[in-house]
Inverse folding.
């Protein structure tokens, strides 16, 4: 019952913002951008606050490196569900995040699709027009550096259905860094693959946990070899972090009988 109440509360608020964006967007681009900013700054953290208070759902994030983050950077991470987007918005609160997202995500997902389009995130077609995809990545790299943004790309290219990491693809990552070399922030996240369906949300979110951690901050790579090294080492760091999170807790010794 608490799950229904919690999500009912959040859905009502998000529905209100979605309807407001639908009404305002044709009338005022500035107004639509303002509403999209409100969704990012307040609604994403609100979702996790409600989940914590009503469902005892915890977001465990590490403060390591947060005090030495660069002005702009490319953030890379493993990817498990659509919840990863509001998680990053909450974790990097106060920073302007822009995501590399597939074309399908920019259409047909209430509110999320609208925010991605209004805030000019990097929307990439999954197949077909390679030239258009490369132009959008070039423009995205320019905006990150010139506007002081945190660009976020998931090198797996899709969500993991079981939490195990998929192969990393280098093309988009390398295109951005070749166009405009910039610091790279490698992160790992864990827990959201359990919420792939509405039924799994009701089963696993109460007393559940979502983890996010910055693993390493790399200086701007200056060559293809450095780019590939960052990508390969980051994947190893993420896999090792997932294994540590998934290790069963050690049993204390000398338990009383």
């Amino acid at each position: 019952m608490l799950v229904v109440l919690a999500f009912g509360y959040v859905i009502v608020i998000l529905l209100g913002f979605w309807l407001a964006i639908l009404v305002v967007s044709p009338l005022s681009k500035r107004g639509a951008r303002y509403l999209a900013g409100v969704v990012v700054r307040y609604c994403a953290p609100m979702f996790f606050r409600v989940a914590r208070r009503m469902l005892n759902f915890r977001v465990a994030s590490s403060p390591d490196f947060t005090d030495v983050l660069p002005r702009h950077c490319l953030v890379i991470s493993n990817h498990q569900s659509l919840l990863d987007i509001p998680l990053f918005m909450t974790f990097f609160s106060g920073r302007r995040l822009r995501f590399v997202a597939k074309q399908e995500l920019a259409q047909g997902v209430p509110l999320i699709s609208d925010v991605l389009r209004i805030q000019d995130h990097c929307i990439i077609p999954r197949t077909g027009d390679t030239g258009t995809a490369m132009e959008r990545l070039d423009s995205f790299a320019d905006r990150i550096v010139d506007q002081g943004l945190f660009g976020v790309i998931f090198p797996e290219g899709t969500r993991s259905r079981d939490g195990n990491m998929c192969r990393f693809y280098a093309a988009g990552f390398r295109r951005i860094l070749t166009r405009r070399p910039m610091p790279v922030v490698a992160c790992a996240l864990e827990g959201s693959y359990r919420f792939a369906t509405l039924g799994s949300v009701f089963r696993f979110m109460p007393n559940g946990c979502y983890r996010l951690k910055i693993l390493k901050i790399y200086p701007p790579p200056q060559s293809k070899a450095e780019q590939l090294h960052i990508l390969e080492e980051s994947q190893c760091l993420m896999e090792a972090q997932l294994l540590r999170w998934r290790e069963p807790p050690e049993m204390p010794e000398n338990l009383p009988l």
Q: What stands out?
A: The longest strand covers residues 209-218. The mean pLDDT is 85. The chain is about 45% helix and 15% strand. The chain has one domain: 58-245.
